[in-house]
Amino acid sequence: MKTTKNLNLKAKGMSLAASALLACGCLNASAQDRPNIILIISDDHTWTHYGFMGHPEVQTPHLDRMADEGLLYTRGYVSPVCSPSLASLLTGLPPRRHGITGNDLQGRRNERAPLRHRLEQNSLMLPRALSEAGYLTFQTGKLWNASYQDIGFTHGMTAETSRHGGAGLTIGRNGNDPVYDFIDMAVAEEKPFFVWYAPLLPHDPHNPPERLLKKYRGKGPTPHGEVYHAMVEWLDEACGELDGWLGAKGLKENTVILYLADNGWDPERGYKGGRAKFTSYENGIRTPMFVRWPDKIKAQRDEKTLASILDFPKTILNLAGVEAPADLPGLDLRDRTALEKRKALLVASYTHDVIDLDDPTQSLTSKALIDGWWKLIVPGPNEEPIAWVARSGNADQDIQLYNLKNDPHETQNLAAEQPKKVAQLKARMPPVGCRSLMPNFPQN
Q1: Which pLDDT band holds residue 178 (cuts at 50, 70, 90)?
Q2: pLDDT digits (tens, 9 = 90+) for 3-47
Q3: Rounded to the nearest 5°, which phi and psi values hold at 217?
Q4: Helical axes 61-69 vs 223-248, angle rounded to 10°
Q5: Torsion sign, CA atoms 305, 45, 241, 174
Q6: Counting C-beta atoms within 10 Å of the first and last residue's C-beta, which end of the chain has fewer, N or C?
């Protein structure tokens, strides 16, 4: 039986007048002509843990199919912790520019308002821009520091300012009925819709259904890893159910689905892994990314081009016919020519707690420059044990260099063997505290 317990189906003062459409810079397409958009965000998801990424144990048949039907970039990069990544999806900016470098304020974990106010200072708030353009917009799942109303969704599940997402976190684990109710309403009103679908999966609590867990018992390197594998399949089931429902309703052909994970994870050791979440290693910042629109976007698998979380807001705005603010550094994921010209990305890692909202450098623990297949990791001024394997006290000695084509899991530090390459890549990194854009690549 369907339920609307956690679904607020009353718009909160969103104007759909023609004047608002013109003010937001919409293109000439009518609301009926614009595609529906669903953004799927998995949570604490290791970049290798998908069937389509070659994992030998984890079963993700639904995501495999969706990735195969879409334009897939296997080398996508995000921030290594939840709140900064989600803020980048909302604003189209990297943490050092949108200001949300961590999950909480240092020593003030229960204070959410300062973080929300800092977020609102940016030029874009994606759900608000889409709502003002005539979309009905719905928030589910993970949402840091704000309620859905605060940031411009017309509808949502997280009606209170919360640390993780409050009532919205039931999505996926308890089915998708609130999403279906919202979409039914949007269809009845003949409005295009945008859904922020961010289930707390495979994030802890790691409590998968027994029917899934028994498939992986005895097959993983550790018991914790086996539980995690089952959690990933649980996510896949939730996404597959949503996609199947769209097909049954005849909505698949005009609905664009975009996918990424907010950050990585160590499936065997969790938070104590040392080379995953909170760090600049691949297990912390890498994720596959895809965009699927049947018969509109050519299905293709790209294992070379660098994609960024900053590309998602630009892509979504373009799909919706909304003009993006001029200060967004991202590209449209559909623009293969533009993405192929991108040769490098910079990803910064910060402390879990924000030290100073006005000075991101105080929280900086490391920076990673991915230049083609080379990757340089340089320690930052702040040392947080969870964010780095070990430090000698000498910043130059702590620099790490990897060739990701030959060593995708970063097992062999080549810094001592390749001093010229280290110097070359280090020279391309901006100074600590630099807020300007590099000319050739966005800085995550």
Answers
A1: very high
A2: 333 344 434 433 333 333 333 333 334 455 799 999 999 999 999
A3: -60, 130
A4: 50
A5: negative
A6: N
Residue 230's Cβ-side half-sphere holds a number of Cα atoms within 13 Å equal to 23
Kind plus residue range of the DSSP H or E element containing 443: none
Closest CA to 105 of 358, 347, 277: 358
Assign domain 347-428 to its CATH architecture.
2-Layer Sandwich (3.30)
Domain extents for the chain? 26-343, 347-428
How far is residue 250 from each of residues 33, 183, 184, 244, 247, measured CA to CA in Å?
A: 15, 12, 12, 10, 5
What is the structure's pLDDT at 230? Answer: 97
Count Cβ atoms within 10 A of the Cβ of residue 173 and give its class: 0-12 exposed, 13-18 middle, 19 or more buried: middle
8 A C-beta contact, residue 365 and residue 388: yes
Q: Is 428 helix (H, G, I), strand (E, B) or coil?
A: helix
| Six-digit token string for 326 | 């001029």
pLDDT tens per residue, range 226-235: 999 999 999 9
- The answer to whether the beta carbons of residues 100 and 299 sit under 8 Å apart is no
Among the residues of 197-222, which ranges form H helices? 210-216
Q: Which CATH class is domain 26-343?
A: alpha beta
Tell me how far CA of residue 24 lies from CA of 125, 129, 183, 310, 317, in angstroms: 12, 7, 24, 20, 11
Q: Which amino acid is at 69?
A: E
